[in-house]
Amino acid sequence: MTTQTLGVVMNGVTGRMGYRQHLVRSILAIREQGGVALADGSRVVLEPVLVGRDADKLRAMADRHGIAAWTTSLDTALADPANTIYFDAQVTTARERAIHAAIAAGKHIYTEKPTAETLTGALDLARAADAAGVKHGVVQDKLFLPGLLKLRRLIQGGFFGRILSVRGEFGYWVFEGDWQAAQRPSWNYRAEDGGGIVVDMFCHWSYVLENLFGRVEAVTAKAVTHIPTRWDEQGREYPATADDAAYGIFELAGGVVAQINSSWAVRVNRDELVEFQVDGTEGSAVAGLRRCRVQHRSATPTPVWNPDLPVTESFRDQWQEVPDNAGDSGFDNGFKVQWEDFVRHVVSDAPFAFDFLAGARGVQLAECGLRSSAEGRRIELPVLDGKSA
Question: Domain GFO/IDH/MocA-like oxidoreductase: where (predicted)?
């Protein structure tokens, strides 16, 4: 069995997502399992190179995990021919310039979303990457969640009949930061730093809806800043200039209508932090991060509206749990699975659908959602395909 080693430049891993999901749960987990297995039986071992602005944090992280290489100079990391892949988990405002530098250095690119602050910027990245002949991918982790994998299985099996609608609820209460520390970085609530829940979450809803139910053709949205004042990591009060909640209606190709509420100012009264209810002519399902429950047409009870009598039945007990059916080990970490797919794409040209153009469609939906909210009207989305880039 042959083994090859690829250097992976990881920019922004001192942040929560970059560190936990991409470095620890993905790259280091892949290293511990002996690399990425290819179809011919060979393996690809990944060697991370940590990049960031804080030398002390990088040094401590490298020492903690036995990582040999780290630097505060992105140019130095990109200049090393042993480094094949560039990964970006920085704040959005810093991402576009760094990716252009990586493209110019001939690196294959894998990045968090949004890929850029504007649709124009996102399409520029797609054009530049294609022109340079480098491979490119965007993290679309929600598709690999166990709950949504079960939902996909139901769709592929024809469980729903004709799908009518999708209703999504996402969010939780993010503390303001005055008397209890916030669970998210303060830049998320400053528009000037690339914050806002529309920019963050509509990129997710774009690929979830497109890959499961149909491309988004039009959006009607209302973006709101419910909490106008917050406190940052140093305990300093600051004005929240970015939206912390968004209420959207998405019209999909094929006639499905999706409604998704996204909020960092909502207290959770559901089984999981995100849930999607899908209703079809033959059955319905509610899918979350891990669970998925169904109610088939043949087993649908007869609810009767009668406000004069108390409810005597548990509606949730009338639904059936969808089993994992993923082997004894269960579902693997979704970030890690997509990393492995991208590495196979780079090394052996295996298919990878989630490229920069897919990322641009997420940026497009966010832009159109914000425009819909500002103008108070429905916005149609032009089709973005290979010709658009």
Answer: 149-285
